[in-house]
TrEMBL record:
Subunit structure: Forms a complex composed of PxpA, PxpB and PxpC.
Pfam families per record: LamB_YcsF (PF03746)
One of the GO BP terms on file: carbohydrate metabolic process
Protein name, as recorded: 5-oxoprolinase subunit A
Gene: pxpA
Record organism: Paenibacillus aquistagni
Amino acid sequence: MISVDLNCDMGESYGVYALGNDDAILDLVTSVNIACGYHAGDPRTMRRTVAGALAKRVAIGAHPGLPDLAGFGRRNMSITPDEAYEMTVYQIGALEAFVRAEGGRMHHVKPHGALYNMAAQQDKLAEAIAEAVYKVNPELVLYGLSGSKLIAAGERAGLRTASEVFADRTYCRDGSLTPRQEPDALIHDPATAAAQIIQMVKSGTVISREQIEVKLKAETICIHGDGEHALAFARQIRELLQTEGIQLAAG
């Protein structure tokens, strides 16, 4: 039986600003990536999200991002590998403290936004992030874009990795995600997203925006919890995978 993880970025509220459908989506996913205070999140949000995930037996991961609250961590910054290492260690440590305090264990690390995309393409940043994860806890799984430099760096560092694909994003011919500023970056039609997901999971391929078949490995599927129809979309994706006989479980 094919098995795949269904993950969601969450814990991204900040102060009085609420974002996402975290409580409801926790019923639908098998792992979550919790913001650690740099691109989003705050101590109270982190604690509540960790507690909610543990209560529903959902695997917990740190979601470290660039220090850019105003840009939600989606704007590229010029950082050195040392800075990438340090901010990754710092954010993993912050979430790990809440996980331990609530009686749980952390499962994985998945960089966020621009940091994720930069590490997918830049060897030195990828190596710095992989080293940070390994030195904090070599048992953590490193989530990264399928076929990316981050996955390769994680494997070289001796980490278990999870190759990630996206339910609601389009792809370029090199396997990278279409930049968010492009008009066709996001998939809004559930039927189109569903067809793409099944192809990625069952065939290990995706059709790029240039209509080229690209090979990839789909071990974990990311859905986003902050869109207008996020909850309905998440429910449709879960039901689709189960209908297709695909088992849902964090690796």
